[in-house]
């Protein structure tokens, strides 16, 4: 049986909850205070009560309903008086001071100290401390706060960047994102090996060329007059064959739709088809100049789960030597499970007359950019460089991608002197970037007139929390307020991103170091983190 809630209780419940919250702490303190005397009193009266109970026991019978009700009411009155007393004094308006204290603590903004609230006891709970914004908005506090002084910045950053532990070659730049003015520069125009900070350039170029809403399609098509089905790769690095697609394009879904479309042609009858796969969208070698590597699969227009041979989704992993062929064979297995028999897949090229049977699409390019930057995903980086090449009319290859990235950045009038793009990921040591270009890229992405570039900022790892910075900055003031892309190769350490300084000003920074022989990796990374943390705590007027 379900007992309906009384209307009176529904109306009173919010007030009871508020009172319970306000008196709870006081009742705990009262209970702790009276517990010892009650225990002593109980021990003292136990013998007399036992004797009295023995005398009156024969006289006591089952209590009547009236007796029971009267006793319960009396006990309830005692408890109510105790609660009211414990709740603290009542103010002139009839509101408990404790309840007002609780309400005041709820209404106050976060911060270390916001002053006394009139009408409260002064003992209200302290609110949570305020934290600086991870990425402050332009045009708000960042535009009105004083900009750091150039001499003051040079005074605090210079000695840190001069530390020999960073390596033999060092460069750095700091830019005020509200004005675009460079506030600090040391070797800022020197082109050094950027490692994975190259991905910032790849991100801006791809967003500019293809747009943040662009999605990469993988298709299954049927050649006219034949029973040949061609799996056409579009270059989606996030295509997955796993049961949980997690928002990515699913090879299983593509098999579902393809099987359904094939069966509809033959009125529900299953048949056998010739299965081929097409990777002709990309040109040139599939192998990165570094050779086989756990950080990158062969770069091809068709792959599932980045060619990973385990169930990982990021970081180093053993990779397939033939990710396109593996994806096609997996697709064949899925078709078999859905009643479509196939031949062993082979390579082919879909004709312009082929009819589309089914299509799946990647997440928007903006999401791919964020994932690439946060996890430093090399497979996505190389795919985005090729999407940039396709949008720019260049061959979708390592060389074509580099040419296209440079072409897009030149359109944005960014400083490219001495700059070279050999790939999209930064794994190639032939890449050369400057601190000046990296800060200019970040400034471009922060421009209020270019919202399409914002993922190049929002994808940056947060110091101490996400991505490649999740295990760095322990105990440093940059934790939570520095957002930056890391770069690491043997003898190369870089860091580029944004930070809100002590005055609330949003700054972009880039620090690059390289050394032969290599510097100590841990020491070099700590030195870069110290530079960014110094910016976070610097008023530097």
From TrEMBL:
- Asked whether the keyword Mitochondrion is assigned, the reply is no
The molecular function GO annotations come to: serine-type D-Ala-D-Ala carboxypeptidase activity
Q: What class of enzyme is it?
A: hydrolase
Q: Which SUPFAM superfamilies match?
A: beta-lactamase/transpeptidase-like
Renumbered residue ranges of the record's region Disordered: 89-132, 307-326
* Keyword Hydrolase among record annotations: yes
Matches recorded under InterPro entries: Beta-lactam/transpept-like (IPR012338), Peptidase_S13 (IPR000667)
Q: What is its EC number?
A: 3.4.16.4
Q: Record's superkingdom?
A: Bacteria
One of the protein's GO biological processes: peptidoglycan metabolic process
Start-end of Basic and acidic residues biased regions:
97-116
Alphabetically list the UniProt keywords: Carboxypeptidase, Hydrolase, Protease
NCBIfam families according to UniProt: PBP4
Family note: Belongs to the peptidase S13 family.
Which PANTHER family did the record assign?
D-ALANYL-D-ALANINE CARBOXYPEPTIDASE (PTHR30023), PENICILLIN-SENSITIVE CARBOXYPEPTIDASE A (PTHR30023:SF0)
Recorded protein name is D-alanyl-D-alanine carboxypeptidase/D-alanyl-D-alanine-endopeptidase
Tell me what organism the protein belongs to. Answer: Streptomyces apricus
Per UniProt, what is the name of the gene that codes for the protein in this document?
dacB
């Amino acid at each position: 049986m379900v007992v309906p809630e009384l209307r009176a209780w529904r109306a009173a419940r919010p007030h009871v909850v508020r009172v319970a919250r306000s008196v709870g702490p006081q009742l705990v303190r009262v209970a702790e205070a009276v517990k010892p005397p009650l225990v002593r009193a109980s021990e003292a009266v136990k013998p007399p009560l036992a004797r009295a109970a023995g005398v009156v026991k024969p006289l006591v019978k089952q209590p009547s309903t009236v007796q029971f009700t009267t006793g319960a009411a009396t006990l309830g009155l005692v408890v109510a008086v105790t609660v009211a007393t414990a709740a603290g004094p009542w103010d002139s308006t009839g509101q408990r001071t404790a309840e007002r204290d609780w309400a005041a603590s709820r209404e106050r903004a976060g911060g270390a100290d916001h002053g006394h609230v009139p009408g409260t006891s002064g003992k209200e709970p302290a609110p949570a401390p305020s934290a600086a914004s991870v990425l402050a908005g332009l045009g708000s506090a960042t535009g009105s706060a004083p900009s750091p002084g150039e001499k003051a910045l040079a005074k605090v950053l210079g000695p840190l960047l001069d530390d020999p532990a960073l390596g033999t070659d060092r460069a750095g730049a700091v830019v005020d994102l509200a004005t675009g003015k460079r506030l600090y520069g040391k070797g800022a125009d020197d082109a050094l090996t950027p490692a994975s900070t190259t991905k910032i350039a790849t991100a801006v170029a791809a967003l500019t060329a293809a747009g943040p809403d662009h999605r990469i399609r993988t298709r299954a098509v049927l050649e006219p007059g034949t029973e040949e089905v061609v799996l056409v790769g579009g270059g989606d690095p996030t295509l997955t064959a796993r049961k949980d697609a997690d928002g990515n394009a699913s090879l299983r879904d593509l098999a579902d739709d393809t099987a359904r479309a094939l069966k509809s042609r033959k009125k529900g009858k299953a048949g056998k088809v010739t299965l081929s796969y097409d990777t002709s969208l990309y040109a040139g070698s599939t192998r990165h100049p570094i050779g086989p590597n756990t950080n990158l699969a062969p770069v091809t227009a068709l792959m599932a789960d980045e060619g990973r041979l385990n169930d990982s989704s990021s970081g180093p992993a053993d990779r397939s030597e033939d990710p396109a062929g593996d994806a096609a064979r997996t697709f064949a297995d899925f078709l078999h499970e859905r009643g479509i028999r196939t031949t062993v897949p082979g390579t082919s090229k879909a004709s312009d007359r082929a009819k589309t049977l089914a299509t799946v699409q990647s997440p928007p390019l903006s999401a791919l950019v964020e994932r690439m930057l946060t996890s430093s995903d090399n497979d996505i980086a190389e795919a985005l460089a090729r999407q940039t090449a396709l949008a720019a009319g260049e061959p979708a290859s390592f060389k074509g991608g580099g040419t296209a990235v440079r072409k897009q950045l030149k359109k944005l009038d960014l400083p490219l002197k001495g700059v070279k793009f050999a790939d999209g990921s930064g794994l190639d040591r032939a890449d050369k970037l400057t601190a000046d270009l990296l800060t200019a890229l970040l400034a471009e992405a922060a421009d209020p007139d270019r919202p399409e570039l914002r993922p190049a900022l929002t994808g940056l790892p947060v110091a101490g929390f996400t991505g490649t910075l999740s295990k760095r900055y322990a105990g440093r003031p940059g934790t939570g307020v520095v957002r930056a892309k890391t770069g690491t190769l043997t003898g190369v350490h870089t860091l580029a991103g944004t930070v809100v300084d002590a005055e609330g000003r949003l700054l972009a920074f880039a620090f690059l170091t390289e050394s032969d022989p290599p510097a100590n990796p841990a020491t070099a990374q700590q030195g870069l983190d110290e530079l960014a943390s110094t910016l976070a705590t610097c008023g530097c007027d």
